[in-house]
Design a protein that fits this description.
about 60 residues, mainly alpha, 4 helices, about 60% helix
């Protein structure tokens, strides 16, 4: 697996996080937890294939 090293100070990272809106912070939290990689994998698979997403009504059988 490729590895990338970036030299960014903690202050710069803190500033970036403080400037994020609520949705960006929620996304960051999801990506940093254990489920993040699985969600990214599913997103890539959904974008790469012709998938039909279920509607809200279909999911909840309303």
């Amino acid at each position: 697996m490729a590895q990338v090293s970036i030299d960014i100070s903690v202050e710069n990272i803190a500033g970036m996080i403080n400037n994020m809106d609520v949705k960006e912070i929620e996304t960051l939290c999801i990506l940093l937890n254990d489920e993040g990689q699985e969600l990214l994998k599913r997103k890539k698979e959904a974008e790469a294939k012709d998938c039909k997403f279920l509607s809200r009504d279909e999911v909840f059988d309303v």
